[in-house]
Amino acid sequence: xxxxLVPAAVLAQGSAGAGATGSGSGSASGSASGxxxxxxxxxxxxxxxxxxxxxxxxxxxxxxxxxxIAEGKAKGVSMTRIATAxxxxxxxLTEARAAxxxxxxxxxxxxxxxxxxxxxxxxxxxxxxxxxxxxxPEQRTIALAVLGELxxxxxxxxxxxxxxRSALERNLDLAAELSSETRAExxxxxxxxxxxxxxxxxxxxxxxxxxxxxxxGTIQAGLPGASVGAQLIGQGKVVGVVKGxxxx
Length: 248
Hints:
By secondary structure, this protein is mainly alpha-helical. The chain has helices at residues 2-5, 8-58, 63-74, 79-100, 109-120, 125-134, 140-152, 157-169, 180-185, and strands at 212-219, 231-238. Strands 1-2 form a two-stranded parallel ribbon.
């Protein structure tokens, strides 16, 4: 009954005032939120810039951090989270570089990434150093990646390192052991893999599936399917355990 005595114009004015107040509050809240995001992004940018500068100082290719930034932006991740990821990546790469010892001076980005991969999977720094310094430069990336995979599978770091060294001494093809996931994680391209000498040649050397060796030849162990369809003419032999085929 009381409401019926209040003029309609007064009610309309009250409603309009309330709407204006609500709209103003929402606008102010949005502006504050935007300002907070801008401030957070500015802080994140400063953290990323500091990380890039530190990478240059310690000899880590900045491209290894820039790829992390690009990956985060592509996924729509906030700059704050990207900055945290970049800082963590720098920390791991710094540890990897230190663990590699003298081998770090000539390490490619893939090799350094493989060393970081091994550490993150649980390999000890001394084993990363051992594998880095005892493996040939052209096989170092693969050796470190395999070290990481073996540790991830449950082997102790020491036994995994010993297994990698043994495989290298026997000239086994470690690349055949790497999973596609690991290749992607360390961004290992075909050009980073060690070449197999003598492939498809006559005389001495190593060959792959379907190849023919004339004269004296050796099929290196570990090559995927190395003995499958291989034809040895003359004095040929297969050494070690051939993966994906039968030992002849």
